[in-house]
Amino acid sequence: NLIHFTEVYPLPTGLEKVFGKAGETVCVENNATGQFARLLRMETGFQVSHQILKYDGRPFTPEHIIRELKERGLV
């Protein structure tokens, strides 16, 4: 499953219910510090299981994400 946030704040209501059903979660972010994962934790109390961070100014490619997931044993 995938949740994509086009607007990061304010967060949509009802996220706690959605995240409560989640198993392993991965937050993919284009920054070095995991700002959005931290915002999710602060606003909802939900802690993501894994983070894939990229901060070289380039967009993620599907290959990059798949490689990172494989390295973490998630695929």
Give the structure's gist in a few sentences.
The chain is of the alpha+beta class and 75 residues long. The chain contains three helices and two strands.
Structural notes for this entry:
This protein has helices at residues 15-20, 35-44, 62-71; strands spanning 26-29, 50-53. The chain is an alpha+beta fold and 75 residues long. It has a two-stranded parallel sheet with strand order 1-2. The two termini are 14 Å apart. The model has no long low-confidence stretch (mean pLDDT 95).
SS-derived structural category: alpha+beta
Rg from alpha-carbon coordinates: 13 Å
Number of strands: 2
Uncertain runs are: none
Percent range for helical residues?
Answer: 25-40%
Order of helices and strands: HEHEH
Strand fraction equals 5-15%
Please describe the biggest sheet, giving its number of strands, its sense, and whether it closes into a barrel: 2 strands, parallel
How would the blueprint of this fold be written?
Elements: H1 15-20, E1 26-29, H2 35-44, E2 50-53, H3 62-71
Parallel strand pairs: 1-2
Q: What descriptive keywords fit this protein?
A:
75 residues; two-stranded parallel ribbon; alpha+beta; globular
